[in-house]
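Example record

One chain of 699 residues, shown exactly as stored in the release files.
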Amino acid sequence: MQIIHSSRNWHGVQEFRYNNISSKLMIIIMLSKLFLLFENIALFSVIFLQLKPTIADSNNIIIRCIDEEREALLTFKQSLVDEHGVLSSWGREDDKRDCCKWRGVHCSNTTGHVKVLNLRTSDYDFARRKFLKGTISPALLKLYDLRHLDLSNNDFGGSPVPEFIGSLSKLRYLSLSCGGPLELPRKFRNHSRLEYLNLENSCLFSVGSLEWLSRLSSLRHLDPSYINLAKSSDWFQVVAKLHSLKSLVLCSCALPPVNPSFIWHFNLSTSIETLDLSDNNLPSSSVYPWLFNLSRNILYLNLGSNSLRGSIPEAFQHMVSLKSLHLCDSELEGGIPKFFGNMCSLQKLGLSQNKLSGQFSQIIQNLSCGCVVNSLEGLYLGWNNFTGPIPHLGGFSSLEALSLEVNRLNGTIGTSLSQLSKLEFLSLDGNSFTGVISETFFSNMSNLQMLFLADNSLALKLSHNWVPLFQLKWLSLASCKMGPHFPKWLQTQNQLVHLDISNVGITDIIPDWFWDLSSKLSYLNLSNNHIKGRLPDLSLRFDGTRIGGSENEYKSTLGLVRCLDLSSNKLDGAIPEEIMDLVGLIALNLSRNNLTGPITPKIGELTSLDFLDLSRNLFSGSIPSSLSQLSGLGVLDLSYNNLSGKIPLGTQLQSFNASVYAGNLELCGLPLANKCPNEESTPSPGTDDYSDALEDEDD
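Predicted structure tokens for this chain:
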């Protein structure tokens, strides 16, 4: 027993020693692993500390921006022409060191890497030509974590998309719509991670097969609008392979019709929620057969400006999720189906510019019987053949836009519309409405922004001191009766962009306050009234100083005016030279007044001018030679004035018909038949004598 016991003890001791040694070995191994772990942590910390936000020594300001990426962005900036200070927040100064706070730049809160670069120019600034120019620098390659790149609405001189764009491997969002020619690099065509691609209005070179698009398997949004895809006969097969697609916009792409044999072999992704095929002249047979397979999820559908014929298909009623449907500008006939009344999600229904017909009251009755009466926000039925009066629309409590222009509607428009308190857009132009519109009509329309009542037999009787609840941006009252005094209530409307009060019977003078009406006004038409007096000295109403070589910045109404029509009034005196400082002016019509004096040589500064009509006034003196410098002038009329002397030589003024100079008995030279003194003959355009005359003029 003792021996056995001793044996057990010996084995126990051995086991203990073994376990003890094992434990020590395990500890040693664990310590070595911990050492390696700590070593890796230390190494990671060195790297991480370089990426984490650092602190500027001077003012303890947290700087998230990584030095290398800041320098890359500044190099990118150097490749751009920034005439309007778009990137003024970018710089090396102490108060600009954090590139994560620069305009258009967004960084990761964790690593400090630049993730978003958004330098898209707004449509408003683009229209005013306030965009970036230059080239796209490869310095962007150093933005290793860039996910979102938007350079749309800028001008890169028609250069192709740089090859390096395809190497931005983490890019998910790319928008390069810029109105200039583009050519996609080969590397980009395998960019399978890309989810959003917008090439709108980019004039892609050599667009044939779109097969490369099918390799962008993660695409959720695709928009190559305004790119000519007439040679891309495979467009339908390609987009049918993009199974993740939710938004497909192919507006104005000159799409070829879908081959009927392909329709049954390819189905577009049923996940598509937005589909825009507008302005492609597609026939019904290229759209309807496959379209209604998308009925489960489609939310926004635009098939406008195609060649859709016949009646509106009943199959649209199965698109139960549809929020917006536009079938405008086609050749649809018949009435509006009753099923629209039961489309409970429908918010916008656009059927303008078709051949639809029927009693408008019956259409409203059909829509009012279903749930759409509660959801409908926009009803666009203009330019059709609907007849009858407007019935009561008070039940459409959500209606924000009503477009009924150019139909055959009649009757009065009083109480039928006055209960639409959410209305922002109302267009009734070109019908046969009659009666008087008073302040009561507008009493509930505090949200109204656009009002079009032109070309009806309406009279506006509004009290002299009326102050509307709304602020209008667009107003067209042409041919309504609202004179003889200038409408004082307009003085309250300081957001106007478009104003047409032509032929409304005003016999008043233009009040001083009118010229300070709105700093945003771009279209002004006061023609065909009996407005008296002189045009004011506009120098008191704008600052004519030039900023950075750009066009003048103005304080008043006329700063942004593109179209100014004061024709057919009784204005007298000379044209104030200050009008010629409106360098953005595209159309100027001062015809049929009593304006006098010479045509100022400063007219040559209106370099954007396309339309100029100064006919039937009392202008005298010679035609200024600066007028021949307006190379973009498409319409000119100087007839029936008292102009004299030789028409300045230059290809522009000689290209017009002689009738634009008629009634100026003392004018001579081409294109008129009467020659000037000391001229032996009057050469015709295109002859050698004419070429010699031009050379002499240059000398």
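Notes: The first strand starts at residue 54 and ends at 55.
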